[in-house]
Amino acid sequence: MSETMKAAIFVEPGRMAVEEVPKARLEADTDAVVRMVRTCVCGSDLWYFRGLSPHERHAQIGHEGIGVVEEVGSAVTSVKPGDFVILPFPYSCGVCPVCKAGFESSCPHGGYFGSNQAEYVRVPQTDGTIVKIPGKPEDYDDATLASLLTISDVMSTGYHAAASAEVKPGDTAVVMGDGAVGLCGVLSAKMRGATQIIAMSRHEDRAAVAREFGATDIVAERDQAAIDKVLAMTDGYGADAVLECVGSKQSFDTAMGLVRAGGVIGRVGLPHYAEISAEGTFGRNIGVKGGPAPVRHYDLHAGLLDAVLNHEINPGRVFTGEYDLDHIQEAYEDMDARKVIKSLIRF
Amino acid sequence: MSETMKAAIFVEPGRMAVEEVPKARLEADTDAVVRMVRTCVCGSDLWYFRGLSPHERHAQIGHEGIGVVEEVGSAVTSVKPGDFVILPFPYSCGVCPVCKAGFESSCPHGGYFGSNQAEYVRVPQTDGTIVKIPGKPEDYDDATLASLLTISDVMSTGYHAAASAEVKPGDTAVVMGDGAVGLCGVLSAKMRGATQIIAMSRHEDRAAVAREFGATDIVAERDQAAIDKVLAMTDGYGADAVLECVGSKQSFDTAMGLVRAGGVIGRVGLPHYAEISAEGTFGRNIGVKGGPAPVRHYDLHAGLLDAVLNHEINPGRVFTGEYDLDHIQEAYEDMDARKVIKSLIRF
Questions:
Q1: Which pLDDT band, with edges at 50, 70 and 90, does B1 fall under?
Q2: Cβ atoms of A129 and A73 closer than 8 Å
Q3: Mean pLDDT of all residues in A229-254
Q4: Enoyl reductase (ER) domain: which residues (chains A, B) (predicted)?
């Protein structure tokens, strides 16, 4: 009988379970198997949990994580069993022009993890995907482990919003969305030197983290009222950079209304809107960039891993609830009900 | 009786005239009046001439030009009568955050010239708009005057396509459109260090200028055939940067098909399409930037004026027909019929 492992199962919208399933194993010589140390629930998982986006029923789920390499295929050269690693939510070949340009998350040979809320995970294309962490999990305290976990997705995604929006020193940046990605967007805008950071938030716990991460102003208004407020704060010109970390039509429309002419909207929320106005963006020279975050690129080449290891940033603060895998239903429910900002799963 | 001047008049689609109209004069203390030395016909003027875009009938037209300052308002400090100048097609305050960010063409206090095909032109907001050229028109030969004329619009617009597409050294760039802007886009991609420059052209005279400007490859195909050809030339990955210098839906769709994941489409053709797919651009991390070109910014801060004065670039090569103002109908007709690439008007 083959080995088994515990895994979270998406049963149907609103209902998670934990089951014994076949243990993740090597399928190709470029694969690795990683024993998970921490995983978490993503805002995008909630779209499925809420029934707003389709997801296969009675199937594994999850795409974030850090862990320890258990086993590697014969072609893997970058890591060995026992190594402590980050699993970026996209997997990628690491060598094609798209990866070399720093867009591993859109690698045409890659894809996305989808079964990381489990004890073990199979990593495809290991050498092009994985990011090694110095030492062992035992070398780090819980807060640092939480921050390392964020650079498998949420912090890297916030950083992608800031980089896509071309935030530069001295900028005024607006961050749409006070979920974990938006909060990490605030931290990223700060890292890139924005001096005025306006966080859109109407939840006190989130606004508090936003302030801790560098937000200079909190705007609780929405739609036209939010636009009016930001325009009033920027002498009527709008913000140099907008980090769109929601993905709704409402949020994108608001972003369009408060961005300065010549500014860029960096968007990282999977778009739940069909179109961007070709004319509305043209006359005002509004740029639109973004997509799934190239996690590995930012971890290694924008200094996110070093910044976490040196305690310059503490993005793990977005985890305000901790659960074991057996309490996965509660982890989803609490995040769905906004009782917690983001749910961490310990093994 | 007030003084008069000769001016081109847009009578109706397909029909231009030359008439005596009241001479341009100062209306505000920040105005200047410029005696035109060269102007020209823009691809966007042809949209009106062809009846594809609305334009007031029996009205002045034109937005490009170089000339000599005739008179200045009392608040003007940057130029004096006798100075030789470029008139960027947008006018702008020059001091607001939008202008300071390098987007004078979207200055909320500015606008666009619209009566430059005339002997004299009124310049609003002179100090924030005008670009001074050293010396006098007599100091320059015809070829240099033609090149100086291009940096009032068409060369700066081509440069905006390249800058918006983020062309950088070593890139493969595709230029959509073989009109004067597209050809200047080729030259701009070359200036920014692209090593493979694929020009889309099916007209031998234009392809010849494209090659002279730095195009390494010419693609005559359109639509899916063009996409297939560019993909074949880039190992299936697509181009790092696409300069969309047409503005049609067909052209933008083709641009989307041949841009590399993570690449940027720089667009400068006034969009004759309604929307950009929010999802189609997201998964592949396709950026879309561009709009009306900040001419003054590129002339002064991207080195276009110096490059022309030092004869490093000769964008004036796009003028393959020369006319006097009395032959304005012919200047439009020849360009409309593609007998010439772009029509220059001498005074």
A1: low
A2: no
A3: 96
A4: 14-345
